[in-house]
Design goal:
single chain; mainly alpha; globular; transmembrane; transmembrane helix; Sulphur transport domain-containing protein
Length: 152
């Protein structure tokens, strides 16, 4: 059974509307599907409940963890297996990849750097978000050019 992205989007949007209507789940504005924010909230929720700390989270994450990141990971894994595209690849240096991943996530949280969140904030009329979105776009173009020139 194939589900198109349009149908998946309708199912996700309808599910989100039902959750908000029946369970009074109301995420903060511009929360969307921000991988950086949802990862932070999931990790902070786990640490808060295990260690008894009070690390910061969005109000919607305080009672039950936001499992968006887990759902995206499992969905991608199922999709890769279903289409026979799953391959484990060894990176050149896993430690550098891990450190760079942590830096990207921290800078995304620091600067509000999730492209989806920046787009939503821009739609709310936030000029700083618009500037950040343009800077992110330029950074991706420049970094891609440097990478392609170095590796081709």
């Amino acid at each position: 059974m194939r589900i198109s992205p349009l149908v998946a989007g309708f199912i996700g949007g309808f599910s989100a509307a039902l959750l908000q209507a029946f369970f009074k789940v109301s995420p903060p504005p511009a929360y969307g599907i921000c991988i950086a924010c949802h990862t932070r909230d999931l990790v902070n929720w786990i640490v808060n409940h295990i260690a008894g700390t009070t690390l910061g989270m969005a109000p919607v994450s305080k009672v039950f963890p936001v499992l968006t990141v887990v759902g995206i990971f499992i969905g991608a894994l199922i999709g890769a297996f279903a289409h026979k595209e799953f391959k484990i690849k060894q990176t050149h240096n896993p430690v550098i990849g891990f450190v760079l991943g942590i830096l990207v996530l921290n800078f995304a949280l620091l600067m509000g750097g999730c492209p989806l969140r920046e787009t939503i904030r821009t739609a709310y009329g936030d000029v700083i978000a618009f500037i950040s979105l343009i800077a992110m776009f330029v950074g991706v173009i420049v970094a891609s050019e440097v990478y392609l020139k170095k590796n081709l």
